[in-house]
User: Fold this.
Amino acid sequence: MNILEKIAEKTKQRIIAEQQILSLEKLKEMLKKSRTPFDFRKAFINQEINIISEIKFASPSEGEIAKPEPLKVAEAYLANGAKALSVLTEPNYFKGNINYIAQIREKFPQANILMKDFVIDEYQLLKARVYGADAVLLIVALLGNQLKNFLDKAKELGLTALVEVHNQEEMKIALEANADFIGVNNRNLKDMTISLKTSESLIKFKKPETIFISESGLKNKTDLANLQSLGYQGFLIGTSFMKTDDPGKALASLLS
Assistant:
């Protein structure tokens, strides 16, 4: 199994365990009282360098990255120009927690928040909405031809779906499902290597009405300027910020 398959297997087990504590029926009741999500795409309809700053404390490729301090990191990012926050909620490989989103939403009610998890079940979408997310990550490599169903469900819940692709085949699935907010991940899931050539080659599929976000391996303003000139309207950056002593300062330095 590659890393994505391993994470998916753990996620299945996690959902079963979580439903013993908070049932799908209870979530649907909670949904009636939850806030209306922001239109996440609006943050990227401009000519600026739009950064989705990621809050992540570990990863399979890096191991432990930083001490879990979600509110401190969120505050630093928002104070230094982040257009949105990507919050890891996968606990086994990324030390994430869905409660991080609830905490950040309560303290920073105007923040644009993406729940970054490995979505394989409607239950996760409902949880994202109830806990305060505006957007969710849908990974084509995980969902395949089920993508359209998950896109429709996310839309029904008022959530923006950032559809993640890694190659041309996945891009075609995303476009056939009418995805209009696409994240191109520069990481190869088979060997975990990163190449910005992935973003450079897949931009040819961009439609005028579709927003493209580049993810992974973005380290300096030259990278961003080059990809922006090709048509990318946003950039998801996490590890390079989180590995520093001050992620907010690292963001400010990149934008300066």
